[in-house]
Design a protein that fits this description.
By secondary structure, the protein is of the alpha/beta class. The protein contains nine helices and nine strands. Helix 4 packs parallel to helix 5. Bound molecules: NADP nicotinamide-adenine-dinucleotide phosphate.
Length: 246
């Protein structure tokens, strides 16, 4: 994939993995638009990387997406890459309190909103010579961590959906790519990120983004980094080992 001179929308691009990827893509001469709910976070990202274009958008809100789409059509009609990166992760204990109030949001942010965005942006993408849809799943799409069960289910669903979408869009020339990150040191899931995971398996957002760029440039349809290579290969055979750590 040519990663120069594209116009790219990264959902959730103000922080973590999305921001690290936005930095890498900006350095390669792309026009990078980042969106998210938190205006302050978008502003902070733009202070660090001034050429970033920012847009407040809650991707779970139909009106917010519609308004962003109209704005994109008017201001960035050459948009040719959609990077579905925004995501949330909640711990749920079904023996105690499975925190049902955040359930619909978790499914909406991780699964249904990216699909809505694809449906809504496809007409624009189809007008471009080189277009791509890039969905961020997770190494946990292939073998779940039981304490974040709904998160893992949404990521398994995104993996499955991406396979079908790639198949359906074959004749359009739109590339459909899945990126399955390993454990990356970000704010995902609150402060638990660096606590639960073995540091040996954790990479920084920058390390992850650099390896991702290399695999995208090499033309991979599935970008697998670090432990995601093992979870993709071994799948549920890893489940007991992953969930019964001392
Ligand atoms: N970190 C890891 O170990 C890891 C591993 C595998 C996969 N991933 C995946 O990588 C992606 C990025 O996660 P991250 O680790 O970089 O976490 P992060 O720093 O928390 O980033 C998540 C981003 O999503 C945005 N977001 C959440 N809800 C949104 C909504 N309704 N509308 C628009 N934007 C929304 C957040 O911005 P606002 O709150 O401002 O909206 C935030 O910028 C996620 O899909 C995650 O599942 C991460």
């Amino acid at each position: 994939m040519n990663l120069k001179a594209n116009t790219i929308l990264i959902t959730g691009g103000a922080t973590g993995i999305g921001f690290a990827i936005a930095q890498q893509l900006t350095e390669r001469g792309n026009c990078v638009i980042i969106c998210g709910r938190n205006e302050k976070a978008l502003h902070k990202a733009q202070t660090e990387v001034p050429s970033l274009v920012t847009r407040v958008c809650d991707i779970t809100d139909a009106e917010s997406r519609r308004s962003m789409l109209e704005w994109l059509k008017a201001n960035h009609p050459n948009l040719n890459i959609l990077f579905n990166n925004a995501g949330v992760q909640y711990h749920r204990d079904f023996n105690n309190d499975a925190a049902s109030e955040s359930l619909d949001q978790e499914v909406a942010i991780n699964l249904t909103a990216p699909i809505h965005l694809i449906i809504e942006l496809l007409p624009m993408l189809k007008l471009q010579e080189h277009a791509a849809i890039i969905n961020i799943s997770s190494g946990l799409a292939f073998s779940p961590m039981a304490d974040v069960p709904v998160y893992c289910a949404t990521k398994a669903a995104i993996h499955s959906f991406t396979l079908s979408l790639r198949h359906q869009l074959k004749s359009t020339g739109i590339r459909v790519v899945e990126i399955a990150p390993p454990i990356v040191d970000t704010g995902l899931g609150g402060s638990t990120r660096s606590e639960g995971a073995s540091n040996r398996m954790m990479v920084t957002p920058k390390e992850f983004a650099m390896e991702t760029m290399a695999q995208l440039e090499a033309g991979q349809n599935e970008v697998l980094v670090g432990v995601s290579v093992d979870t993709r290969r071994l799948g549920e055979a890893l489940f007991e080992r992953m969930n019964n750590r001392p």
